[in-house]
Write a structure and sequence with these properties.
The protein starts with a helix and ends with a helix. The chain is mainly alpha-helical and about 200 residues long. The protein has helices at about 1-5, 15-25, 30, 40-55, 55-75, 95-105, 135-155, 185-195, 195-200, and strands spanning about 85-90, 110-115, 125-130. It has a three-stranded antiparallel beta sheet with strand order 1-3-2, with helices on one face. Helix 5 runs parallel beside helix 7 (about 135-155). It is globular.
Length: about 200
């Protein structure tokens, strides 16, 4: 898909002749599809060229992904076994997922709620995506807001504490590996790292 990887639209399928012929004649989404507009094809081509000639962007993307993966897990959120810069935060109940999304949106964080039937019943999630252009203070801010919202709505899975939030029924056994107190950890760093004006007005 070009939309997630190259900031364009459309995509392609690679395969042997038999597979491609089968898709052409049986895929409902292909029957009425049109050719990719030239500007979007060139946008994808240009993005690929940047990735090949400026690898530092790819490296920074993976650094951001690793930071967020560790951050969510250290806070106790259920993110499954994901290893990519598109990180799902599993909430569970559809209504709870929308409520969590609204709290994040009002606090300046935008993500995508995904509910059934796009995911199995009881596995509603918030799909968060990260880019190479996200700065560390952006990421710290997001974690701080997720932490505050998770505590408010009861969606953080503290398996070492005396209670477990509703999202934890899907999390399975978990051992927190944070080397710092979880209480307000990311919020504290956030307030030191980001100007208050940015905290109030910017959408991450």
């Amino acid at each position: 898909t070009f939309s997630k990887s190259f900031a364009s639209l459309g995509g392609f399928v690679a395969g042997n002749k038999d597979v491609i012929n089968y898709i052409k004649h049986t895929a409902r989404s292909f029957i009425f599809s049109a050719s990719l507009p030239a500007p979007n094809a060139m946008a994808a081509f240009a993005a690929l060229e940047v990735m090949e000639t400026e690898p530092e962007h790819v490296q920074r993307l993976w650094e951001n992904a690793a930071f967020m993966l560790k951050g969510y897990r250290d806070l106790g959120f259920n993110i499954g076994a994901t290893q990519t810069p598109i990180i799902p935060v599993i909430i569970g109940d559809d209504e709870a997922c929308f409520r969590f999304w609204k709290e994040l949106f009002d606090a300046g964080v935008y993500c995508n709620p995904v509910v059934s039937p796009a995911v199995p019943q009881g596995m509603a999630l918030l799909r968060t995506s990260y880019m190479a252009t996200h700065r560390r203070d952006h990421l710290v801010r997001v974690l701080g807001i997720f932490e505050k919202t998770g505590k408010k709505l009861g969606n953080i899975c503290y398996t070492t504490a005396l209670w477990r939030g509703p999202a934890c029924r899907h999390a399975g056994p978990r051992r927190l590996t944070a080397s710092f107190p979880l209480e307000g950890a990311y919020e504290a760093v956030f307030h030191k790292a980001v100007v208050r004006r940015s905290a109030e007005n910017d959408m991450v």
